[in-house]
Amino acid sequence: MTKPYVFITRKLSDEAIQPLQEIAEVNMWNEEEKAVPREVLMEEVKKADAILTMLSDKIDKELMDTAPNLKVIANLAVGFDNIDVAYATEKGIAVCNTPDVLTDTTADLTFGLLLSTARRLVEAAEFVKNGEWKSWSPLLLAGHDIHHKTIGIVGMGKIGEAVAKRATGFDMEILYHNRSRNHSAEKRLGAIYTSFDDLISTSDFIVCLTPLTEQTKNLFTAESFKKMKKTAIFVNVSRGPVVDEDALYHALLNGEIAGAGLDVFVKEPIESNHPFLGLKNVVALPHIGSASTETRVTMMHLCCQNIELVLTNQNPKTLVNKDWLLLKKQN
């Protein structure tokens, strides 16, 4: 009996894929620093029963129409805006993600980015490394306090709630805006629900953790940044397209806000001449929200497990398109 074929679009640990290799033929794109080219992916899906994908892989109608045997797409991320989920469901393809396992790791990074931007830590470290530290002075690389300030979290899901929990350690007032009330965060952490406009105009730190949808695309506009305090710090660890990057650049350049900590961008990876990189009040990271060794390995195992379950005619652990189960039962 021929084993099912699985294509993995980025190099994973041997330990993570070993159980999958026992039930399937596994082929893996081995260039760690380079995304799989579209033409290679298009060729591989023609024979694939399953694919394990990254956020950088566009899984659209064109691709799925060339994949007659495809049964499951396991995305190594919480988000899945790179996948046409509705069309996958129509085609009877299960779509899986990696929720929950990266909540605390991403919250750690988010708060670290907030701290680094506010206290100018990256700038200060480079100042020392470049031999610029010649003397001490009272306002040398003076940044902004975090304690006792107001944090505004846009997108109070599990990661947002974990960030809010960390903010309590700094005695911060916690505001949040979400499409629905998070009563757990209100009760446990004292978070206060408010409108988007009130949040951005009141908060000292505006932290964006909202998923990318048609409603949240370009949520942060030039008008949004004009409403913020001149001392405000903007932090984005969600998706690049929720922000109008030109508007953010000009807000930073013109002193409309004090700084920005960014882990995500509209186009990734960014070029070395990207306008943000010329601004001292920007801390830019290469989309490493969940990048701890422990968490990334756990994500790999979960993706492989989801694939194995679907290929052995079982239900995956973290299914995105719940309608797939109904279609499966009907068939």
Provide a quick synopsis of the model:
The chain has 331 residues and is α/β, with parallel strands linked by helices. The protein is built from 13 helices and twelve strands.
Spatial shape: globular
User: How far is the N terminus from the C terminus?
Assistant: 23 Å
Compressed to H and E, one letter per element, the order equals EHEHEHEHEHHEHEHEHEHEHEEHH
Number of strands: 12
Low-confidence stretches: none
Please estimate the helix content.
25-40%
**Structural class of the helices, strands and pairings?**
alpha/beta
Mean pLDDT: 96
Q: From the alpha-carbon coordinates, what is the Rg to the nearest angstrom?
A: 22 Å
Biggest sheet, in brief?
7 strands, parallel
Just give the CATH class of the largest domain: Alpha Beta
CATH topology grouping of the largest domain: Rossmann fold
CATH homologous superfamily (4th level) name of the largest domain: NAD(P)-binding Rossmann-like Domain
| CATH architectural group of the largest domain | 3-Layer(aba) Sandwich
Number of helices: 13
Write down the domain tally: 2
How do the strands of the widest beta sheet line up side by side? Answer: 8-7-6-9-10-11-12
What's the assembly state of these chains?
Answer: single chain
Strand content: 5-15%
